[in-house]
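Dataset card, provenance and construction

Sequences and ligand SMILES were collected as paired inputs. For each pair, a complete structure of the chain with the small molecule in place was predicted and serialized as structure tokens. The example below shows a pair involving zinc ion. Curators did not alter the output after generation; any descriptive sentences attached to a record were derived from the structure itself.
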Amino acid sequence: MPAPQCASCHAARAALRRPRSGQALCGACFCAAFEAEVLHTVLAGRLLPPGAVVAVGASGGKDSTVLAHVLRELAPRLGVSLRLVAVDEGIGGYRDAALAAVRRQAARWDLPLTVVAYADLFGGWTMDARAPPSTFPLMGPNRPADSSGASL
Ligand SMILES: [Zn+2]
């Protein structure tokens, strides 16, 4: 069964159905609707005053990647500037790949990036030094490589 036609542009096939509205949209129309909703939310809630410098916590995962991307798209209309901030907890085999993804995002989007490392803040203390990797079964060397480092 072919995908339905996009309910917004009526020109492309729908790529998804929005759970709340049930509306079937193509990728371009979904992105436009999502950005419009974020813009409305930020403006209605007066969340980011014009002139603000907004630090986006960037983990390299999908959530912070989407947040940084949409705020970057909206920054000119909001009158704000962005920068990325990432935390290196010192978890070997986990954070390195995600930080590499954040560095690629910062370079691609031409955004300033600050990486704050536990080792620098806490005199060499890292998560690995504090607790063995088996303490955090979802992190560390056993975590699948494809579960971190999202990109757009
Ligand atoms: Zn469309």
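Derived descriptions for this record:
The chain is about 40% helix and 15% strand.
Residues 1-47 form one domain.
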